[in-house]
Inverse folding.
């Protein structure tokens, strides 16, 4: 008798759970692909960063494009270069966007325009990070690491590295320790 009662309770519980499982549906995600077939975000995407106003700034094979979720807007480089590719990007604590390019140039956003940071003849920029000191660290494929003070006149310092290492990424591993 006890077995029959336990079986009835188990069966009843199982059926209730089965019938109410449609109420406990999981979270669903919807995706939409953006690409050259619908003339949005043309080219290969190298980097993406979101501005404080919600726009996505996308570094593509065709330059930097600002995307609002529906339309893309081409952002012109100050010198109208057509072959420059933004290979890295970041947003600093003040909301300024920074872009490092394949030709060694670095830019920061000023509203919806780009302003060049004057570096001396570097190779492709691999990474941009903000340090705990508030400086922007520029990691190029070259013989030096640069820091830029984002406030004021963009004071730039160079820190030479011996040899010509291949640097792709960097992070702070503790106070005063930059891991490359």
């Amino acid at each position: 008798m006890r077995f029959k009662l336990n079986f009835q309770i188990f069966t009843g519980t199982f059926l209730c759970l089965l019938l109410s499982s449609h109420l406990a549906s999981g979270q669903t995600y919807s995706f939409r692909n953006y690409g050259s077939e619908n003339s949005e975000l043309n080219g290969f995407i190298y980097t993406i960063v979101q501005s404080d106003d919600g726009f996505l700034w996308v570094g593509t094979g065709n330059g930097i494009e600002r995307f609002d979720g529906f339309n893309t807007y081409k952002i012109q480089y100050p010198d109208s270069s057509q072959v420059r590719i933004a290979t890295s990007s970041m947003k600093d604590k003040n909301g300024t966007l920074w872009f490092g390019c394949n030709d060694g140039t670095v830019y920061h956003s000023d509203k919806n325009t780009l302003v060049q940071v004057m570096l001396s003849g570097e190779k492709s920029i691999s990474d941009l990070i903000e340090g705990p000191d508030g400086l922007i660290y520029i990691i190029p494929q070259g013989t030096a690491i640069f820091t830029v003070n984002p406030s004021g006149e963009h004071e730039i310092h160079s820190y030479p590295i011996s040899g010509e290492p291949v640097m792709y990424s960097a992070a702070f591993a503790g106070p005063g320790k930059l891991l490359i």
